Each structure stands twice: as C-alpha cells, then as structure tokens.
C-alpha cells in the first residue's frame, strides 16, 4: 500500500509538472502572437499599407506616361491635357486598388498638374510594423491628398 501511494504521488507530481509546462508554453505562444501584431500590425493594417504603396506606384506611373504624352526632346512638346489621355483612363491597372475608382487629375496651369488619391495612413508617421516607406517626394497624409507635378517631371514638386 505504501508503494502504491508513492506511485500515485509521483504520477500527481508528473501531472502537475505537465500542467505547468503546458501553461508556460501557452503563455509563450500567446506572447509571441501579441508581439507579432505589435511589431508588424494586424493583417488588415498590412493590407492597407500595401494598398497605399500601390497607389503611389500608380500615381508615379501616370506621371511617367504624362511626360511621354506631352513630348520628348525629339518632338515639339504638347500642352498638358485638360483630362487624362485615354491611354491612362482606360488602363485597368491605373485605378485605386481598393475602390476601383480612377485617380483624380487636374490641370493647374500650362506647366503644372495635380494627381490625387485617398490614403489609409500618413506616410510620415512611424507606425509599428510600417516597414515600407514611400519615396520622400511622394510623402502624404492619411486621407485625400494631391501632388503637384511639373509638366516634364515624374516627381511631385
């Protein structure tokens, strides 16, 4: 009887050790998940940051196409168009990736125009997990923002 009682005690002690190990492991996994979200942000936040990056790439592409459209050194330069050329308006990949709406274009003068988009995040605010960075000339606040661009350049002023 004494021997059986000793085995029960060892068995209870092993169960107790297993429970402690399980609890510690669970807490470690939970801490790793929380740290991951804190460092990288939620999957939704990462998706929104990626959409902002795509918007900048689209606006940059539109600016490059406009430089080609208004002329190069070999031809006489064309004036800035009142509306975006059909080649841009009909490009299925040069629209807001979230809303599907075209980006805003407005001719401000013979030599300056603006391109506008709606952004999820301020590109200058350090956000936990914002490992991406927009080029400085494409810096933007959250919400609607317009970039003024000179006629023969591909970057905002």
UniProtKB/TrEMBL annotation:
Query: Know the name of this protein?
Result: Type II secretion system protein
Q: Which organism is it from?
A: Phormidesmis priestleyi Ana
Task: Report the domain of life of the source organism.
Answer: Bacteria
Keywords for the protein's UniProt record, in alphabetical order: Membrane, Transmembrane, Transmembrane helix
Where do the segments described as Disordered lie? Answer: 74-96
According to the record, the segments passing through the membrane are 20-40
């Amino acid at each position: 009887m004494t021997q059986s009682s000793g085995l029960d005690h060892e068995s209870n002690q092993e169960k107790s050790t297993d429970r402690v190990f399980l609890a510690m492991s669970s807490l470690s996994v939970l801490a790793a998940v929380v740290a991951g979200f804190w460092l990288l942000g939620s999957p939704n936040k990462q998706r929104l940051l990626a959409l902002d990056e795509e918007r900048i790439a689209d606006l940059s592409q539109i600016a490059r196409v406009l430089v080609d459209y208004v002329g190069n050194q070999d031809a006489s330069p064309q004036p800035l168009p009142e509306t975006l050329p059909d080649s841009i308006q009909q490009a299925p990949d040069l629209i807001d990736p979230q809303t599907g709406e075209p980006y805003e274009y407005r001719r401000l003068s013979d030599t300056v125009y603006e391109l506008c988009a709606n952004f999820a995040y301020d590109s200058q605010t350090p956000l936990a997990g914002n490992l991406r960075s927009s080029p400085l000339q494409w810096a933007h606040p959250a919400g609607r923002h317009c970039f003024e661009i000179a006629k023969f350049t591909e970057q905002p002023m």
